[in-house]
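Please fill in the sequence for the structure shown.

STRUCTURE ENCODING:
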């Protein structure tokens, strides 16, 4: 057997490195005289390039089921929410370090269904704004309980001024449960927040492989993992293998285009707005109660197309006389509330097609600007 010359050895080694992907040959490149040096230089350049392209994502944690723990692996209700820290959540998804440079901050540790307040939403929104104002930050992920996620998402959608991705995520099963959905949801949320496709789309909710916008998506199941949908208008798209696929776009005003700015809003500046739910045999008792409690706005979740019971109507009329703004909404999950003569006669605002809990958020913010029902109706039409 012939002995290989040094030159041939170098050539064969270089070819081996090329086939393994360590060395890439361009049309203008030349073979290295020292393959070890070539390997080192190329690997170093690849690392620098990769580091530069890796997005900087901040996770703001507020508690919820995604940070919850149960006493057994089969417990999916009655668990303790908001137990785990954001760093503990990251430990369950080690592959996150491959798609983003992540920093974390604990904003709250609550069960969103029992402890979410205006104060929590304002604090969170201010932190989101501060974070996104930093040019080094590429996007924000917010871990949140699912019970009031849609309300917090809509609040952020109306008050944070940025075109950078803001993604809310949670889970329907605690971290200790069999087939816990939190880890994959969190991975998808970070991937979405770090994608160029998520820019300028307002606040997004990423759950169960689906992407929804803050205005339209809402919780549709009490316990199922596929809990966030909009049966009528649909979703924006899907997360598949860590990549977003968008098929629809939000067209209502949001974030950077909003008239409401969290930098000018405090907890104390937000007026009290209550939701009154209509039903058969309804009357004005609840309306009178919320007015007595100091409400400046009422969302009337009526039947059908926002119908108001004949015994409730006088209470709403008296509320308007006391400078309380009344929005006529519906308890029905699909369809819009259309303008009716009752609105013209009583200076009521109609909610268009957002549900009562989101109408409360919008009315609360609108009242920081005006009490004019005509201007507030414009807000409901635009947002």
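FILLED IN BY: designer on duty
SEQUENCE:
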């Amino acid at each position: 057997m012939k002995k290989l010359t040094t030159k041939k050895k170098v050539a064969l080694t270089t070819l081996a490195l090329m086939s393994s992907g360590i060395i890439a040959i361009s049309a203008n490149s030349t073979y290295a005289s020292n393959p070890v040096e070539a390997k080192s230089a190329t690997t170093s350049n690849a690392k620098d390039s990769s580091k530069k392209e890796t997005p900087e994502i901040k996770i703001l944690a507020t508690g919820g089921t995604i940070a919850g723990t149960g006493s057994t692996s089969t417990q999916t209700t009655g668990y303790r929410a908001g137990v785990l820290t954001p760093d503990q959540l990251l430990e369950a998804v080690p592959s996150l370090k491959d798609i983003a440079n992540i920093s974390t901050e604990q904003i709250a540790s609550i069960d969103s269904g029992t402890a979410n307040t205006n104060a929590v939403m304002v604090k969170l929104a201010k932190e989101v704004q501060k974070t996104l104002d930093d040019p080094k930050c590429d996007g924000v992920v917010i871990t949140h309980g699912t019970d009031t996620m849609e309300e917090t998402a809509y609040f952020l959608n109306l008050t944070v001024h940025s075109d950078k991705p803001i993604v809310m995520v949670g889970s329907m099963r605690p971290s200790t449960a069999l087939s816990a959905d939190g880890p994959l949801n969190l991975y998808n949320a970070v991937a979405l927040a770090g994608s160029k496709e998520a820019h300028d789309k307002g606040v997004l909710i990423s759950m169960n492989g689906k992407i929804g916008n803050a205005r339209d998506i809402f919780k549709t199941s009490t316990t199922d993992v596929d809990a966030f949908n909009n049966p009528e208008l649909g979703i924006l798209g899907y997360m598949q293998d860590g990549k977003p696929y968008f098929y629809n776009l939000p067209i209502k005003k949001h974030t950077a285009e909003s008239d409401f700015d969290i930098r000018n809003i405090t907890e104390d500046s937000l007026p009290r707005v209550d939701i009154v739910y209509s039903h058969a045999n309804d009357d004005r008792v609840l309306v009178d109660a919320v007015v007595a409690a100091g409400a400046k706005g009422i969302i009337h979740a009526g039947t059908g197309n926002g119908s108001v019971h004949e015994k409730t109507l006088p209470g709403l009329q008296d509320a308007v006389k006391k400078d309380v703004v009344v929005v006529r909404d519906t308890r029905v999950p699909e369809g819009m509330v259309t303008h009716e003569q009752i609105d013209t006669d009583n200076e009521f605002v109609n909610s268009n097609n957002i549900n009562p809990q989101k109408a409360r958020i919008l009315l609360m913010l609108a009242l920081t600007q005006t009490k004019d029902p005509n201007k507030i109706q414009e807000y409901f039409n635009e947002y």
